[in-house]
Amino acid sequence: MLIIFLLTILISALSFAVQGRRRDYAMASSGIFLILTVIYSILRFHSGYTGGIISQETFNIASSIGIVFSTGVSGFSDALLILSAIVIFLSVLITEKGKYGESLYSYILITEAGLFGILLSRDFLFFYIFWEVVLIPVYFIVAQYGGPNKDSVSLKFFVYTHIGSVFLLLSIFTVYTFHYEATHVFTFEMSQLMVNTYFSQIPAFWMYFAMFGFLLAFLVKMPSFPVHSWLPDTYESAPYPGTVILAGGLSIMGGYGLFGILMPVYKSMGTGVMDLLMALGIISLVYFSLSAMMQQSLKRMMAFASAAAMGFVTLSFGAGLVESGYSASLELAGGMFQIIAHGLIMALIFSALFYISRSTGHESTHSLGGIFREAPILSSFLLAGLLASLGLPGLAGFIGEFSILVGVFGAIGWLILIVIFAMIVTASYHIWAAQKSLYGPYNEKLGAIHDADRATTVKLMGMLIVIFVLGVVPNLIYGILITYVGGII
Amino acid sequence: MVNMYWPGWFIFLSPIFGFVLTYVVGRYYRNLSGIIASLAVLGSFIAAVLTFFYVQSNGTIYNSYEWFYNIHAGIYIDHLTLVMALMVSFVSLMIHLFALYYMKDDPNKHIYFAETSLFTAGMLGLVVSSNLVLFFLFWELVGLCSYLLIGFWFFKPNATAAAKKAFIVTRVGDLLFLVGMAILYSSLQGFHGLGSNSPLSIPFLIANAKAIAAYVGPNVLGAVAVLFLAGAAGKSSQFPLHVWIPDAMEGPTTVSALIHAATMVTAGVYLVARVFNIYYYSAPFALYSVVILGAFTALFAGIVGIFVNDIKRILAYSTISQIGYMLAAIGLGGVFGYGGVSFGMFHLVVHAVFKALLFMSAGAILIALMDLRDTRYMGGLWKRMPMTITLLFIGSLALIAFPYTSGYFSKDTIIAASWQYYAHYGTFSSFLPWLFLAIGALLTTLYTFRMFFRTALGKPRSYLAEHAKDPSVFALLPLFVLAIGALGLGAIQSYFYGYIDSSYQMPNIPFYIDIIPMTLMAIGLVITYVLYGTTIWQRFKFAKNPLYRIAKNKFYLDYLFTNIIAERVIVPISAGFTLFENSYNKAVNNVGTSTLKLGDMFRKIQNGVVENYFVVLIIGVSVIFIIVKLLGLM
């Protein structure tokens, strides 16, 4: 896996040298990364994974102050690796020839390298570096190729998420310093720092400070209420390939932070933090669902839908860790599954929306209407994405939402009805959006529009098949996630 | 692992293959699509028959595999399942055959047949599935297909609105069902009888219901049962979640026939019958809620049905009402044990047959009348389309439980059983079911024959009705088969009851009570003939009558849901949230802009005076300190 990762860095760096055919170059390389990642996962995880981190490698860089580049893959991060490889590949695929400048493809490839770096690093220093690396290309994607207000929006995105990162850095240094104080060893290794035995020895104040920093950074990325303001604007302004990356790729960062980084020290966190997370999860769900309902632009509506779906993840993290027994396992694995499913589904929705807005020139519900008559294939794909997003069984979204919902009762009791209320609202506005934009009498103002051609159908079909297969045979990754959870709780 | 019994799996796999094949082949050869879909459903029927004989000799089938974590997936086939599977596949086959005629000119008929095939697959999958989660998957597949099929004529605004309504209303029920599962799943944690079973496995729940009730407490289990009932009410369109089904009449009539007879509304009843033991062993309020909900809905929908003019909507309300009878029958299980299920299931099967017949005859009428659905403009059709109207007549007789039609055997038993229920408990609350159901018998006759007489007798009241013609005999063949069933199914009554519950007891009540429903029916026939067999009804002027207006407006339930809850509550709340979100977003932007300005200011402060730096540092640290302290306090 390390080799694949180093390749991504190399390839993305080299991409600047390619002139003229950078789209083909990006397409080929991201396709190869996807294949390599899948092959790697099949080889290492198909059987015999027993939890924890595998494929660990360490390189001393400056060991006297603990700077070591160490990598490793857990069951969860492997699933996310595949997800980000798929999403990046898709985002390259849906770009049009010649519409965007060459640099877009380099940015996309750097994003992939950054995401891989985040998921692979097992020490905080490099984790942090890659965390920042991802920000920069996405910032440029929005700033260069974005829609309305791209300048202010991209700046907002950058500053907002950067504030989260600053606290991440502060937290990292906090745990790093106290580790030195306790053991007189400098280390950034997560395997040393993020363990209960050490973590619970940090003085309470500083432990909560570190926790606060971690949580803030992750919740901003998630995004969770109330630190979400960057999200709708950025999603809306970003060019569609960028939105796909944001929704499918970047949204995993917050979830990975919770489940990949913080989960091992959950015992030190105390139930107060869990309650807070559960509350934030539920509030996010309700708040984003209700906000989504009134949106005119489908893109912005789906941005809120994406945020609401991530509310489930926050909720499952908080609830899963206060519960015990099989509910907890189901819940936590469900939360991780939800991250993956959400990434895939949002990638599908935004891609379908991209083609629709390309052929009609519109993306708001009231200026579309009845386009099923003229573009049945595209409409069907959008409908499929919407149905997956509202958690229809048989598609990937259901498995995650079901696990979370079923597991969560033990932790929140009858508050589950609020979650249900949010889900009803979610279903309503999804169906309402479909009805307004896809069905009904055709909006003749749109003139003649093109349906998907064969290539487009294949791309979208590929995504839909992945979502469908994960919905019907979730055990492809669910088993690994359960094993991963079993290794921690 | 246990050896897999393939025909059992084939019951629902066949129409799934049919779905793919119909769509792919149908894209190039439209005319083959209907035949492929029908063959696929025929395949399920044959598989169901094979399974029937296998179960006769080898007993119950239970194949189960791990799906994810402790949720398993597989098939569970016992007598109850088989009854449903045979009924669904047979009735669906008849409807598919009729649809070959009904949909023959539709340009998108390959999509139609692919979707009905999938619809049938969803229902059959739900019937055979061994785990509540898999059950739920198919349950939602049924919901999805109904959404797609109701909105099949997507260019009609009414149809898409109805599809949307159907989806959202049933979704409310589905999610409550999901909450029920959540409670059950969480509470079963630590249950010693669990072993390697999945906590939501149907055979496990049925077999251990008594121990589970003791472990989780009868009230908790009762809550679970009531939540399941809420799911069933959504799917089976029971009060107050019935509002979607009359609107769903906007879809093709064959779809209505599928929804009402075979593939959708029976799912809820089947759910309650399937996990009957949970109801039986939990607190008594669970079963009572089933019986009272069913009986009340039977009455309520009957009342509304009398005031509707659209032929399909009358049939829709009759479905709601008849489903109420089925649920009430199952709810009587407090006295009759599992026998209640057999009463309910028999009515379900019989109803499926005659309701499919009714809908398809109505469909034949609509084709002849160019989709004119208002019974006020029909009339005199018996002379013009004798075959179709005779079929409609047979269906109507079965619906009102005319003696010795199949409906008589299935429905009168339920009403009689509800009297015995009262006799057993002797309280007022146990009297209500009988009262509702018996009045329901009168109402059934009123709305059915109001529709029938207005359609069949008198003079044609529109140009279209004057020129109506019967479709060809071949098109009506499936209807004749169903008509035979509607007349003759009563013959298997006692065999059927024994097949579901080998120790069932027929209700034993005084003769003078037993004839009450029949008398009411006769009265109803006389009333409707006098009023609607003639032209008296045309002189009615009720429009100002307040009671009439309440009933005509369906007791304002649609108004309550759409105009009050959705438009006056949810939408304003949502608008409020959006407003808040926008101002919050703006505030964040302002903070951002003013920070930039502040930056300018700070540039002036940064004059190397260390005290200033120090002040900023202190402020910053104390803010963080406060936040962290608050976190620590929790």
Number of helices of chain B: 29
**Major β-sheet of chain A, in short?**
2 strands, antiparallel
Strand order of the largest sheet of chain B: 1-2
Q: What summary fits the major beta sheet of chain B?
A: 2 strands, antiparallel
User: What's the β-strand tally of chain A?
Assistant: 2
| Low-pLDDT windows of residues of chain B | none
> Rough shape of chain A?
globular
Structural class call of chain A reads mainly alpha
Compute the average pLDDT of chain B: 84
* Helical coverage of chain A, percent range: over 70%
Radius of gyration of chain A: 21 Å
Spans of chain A with pLDDT under 50 lasting ≥5 residues?
Answer: none
Q: Shape of chain B, please? A: globular
| Distance N to C terminus of chain B | 50 Å
Strand content of chain A: under 5%
Instruction: Tell me the total number of β-strands of chain B.
Output: 2
Strand line-up of the largest beta sheet of chain A: 1-2
Query: Which two chains share the most extensive interface?
Result: A-B, 70 and 61 residues
Percent strand of chain B equals under 5%
Structural class of chain B: mainly alpha
Essential attributes:
heterodimer, A: 489 residues, mainly alpha, two-stranded antiparallel sheet, 2 strands, 74% helix, globular, B: 634 residues, 29 helices
